[in-house]
Design brief:
Order of helices and strands: HHEEEEHH
Number of domains: 2
Shape: elongated
Oligomer: single chain
Structural class: alpha+beta
CATH architecture of the largest domain: Roll
CATH class of the largest domain: Alpha Beta
Distance between the termini: 77 Å
Number of helices: 4
Helix content: 40-55%
CATH topology of the largest domain: Structural Genomics Hypothetical 15.5 Kd Protein In mrcA-pckA Intergenic Region, Chain A
Strand content: 5-15%
């Protein structure tokens, strides 16, 4: 069986659409056996797919070829996750940093700014 790289990514749910899979491949976010390839490259059993997510790289080994999209529960029978613990920790750290960033209000309000200025003035007077 022959199958295109972008179609396989879509089938095993590493990309939401085939066009998104092709775009990720062309941008170098998804690699095959550590090399940049085209979307039309034919994939084989035992190939390793590397997916770049922010600062971490997730690796998946191709176990079986297929040409139809699967349900999420069936994915582990077709690809094997070979991601190292280091990479998983990198990704979790990124997620925590993003969560902390989103919980802040961002730019201080005018009232917050005045309170900060007053605090800094009081701080300078003590020294």
């Amino acid at each position: 069986m022959k199958i295109r790289f972008d179609k396989y990514l879509w089938c095993v749910r590493l990309a939401k659409t085939r066009s998104q899979a092709s775009e990720l491949i062309s941008k170098g976010k998804i690699r095959l056996n550590g090399q940049d390839v085209k979307s039309s490259k034919e994939i084989k059993v035992n190939d390793v797919i590397g997916v770049q997510k922010h600062s971490a790289t997730f690796n998946y080994k191709v176990l079986v070829l297929l040409d139809k999209r699967l349900g999420a529960a069936l994915i582990p029978t077709f690809i094997e996750d070979q991601t190292t613990e280091e990479e998983i920790l990198k990704f979790k750290q990124y997620q925590l940093a993003q969560k902390a960033y989103r919980e802040t209000d961002g730019k201080p309000t005018k009232k917050d700014r005045r309170e900060l200025d007053k605090f800094m003035e009081d701080w300078d007077e003590e020294i």
